[in-house]
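Researcher: Next sequence.
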Amino acid sequence: MVSFAPVLSRFPARPARSRFSSRPLAVLAVDLLNPTPQAEARKHKLKMGTALTDETLPPLQTLVPQPRSFFMDVKCPGCFTITTVFSHAQTVVICAGCSTVLCQPTGGKARLTEGCSFRRK
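Model: Next structure:
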């Protein structure tokens, strides 16, 4: 039988640590979710887009990214059935009731057919 006692004695024993630190939590000096307009203006110009020149435009990239796509209920102008459609749909969406084209894909957002009304979900 092989003894591992000499091998283990070469390594010093580490003191037992608690999983939770006893130090108080540090509070950030800057609110990361709601940055000030001055902090937004100091960002890189390519990230901000045209928001540096016009304060009414939203920034192209914020500190906390959010999706710009959404789902919507589209009402067919012919049979008034409601179909759920993704805003950036990449295929043609057809009404299940009357086979009318509800929206067509473009490079970004899907283009609704004239006469179709929608509601954002």
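Model: Residues 11 and 21 are 25 Å apart (CA to CA). The chain has a mean pLDDT of 80.
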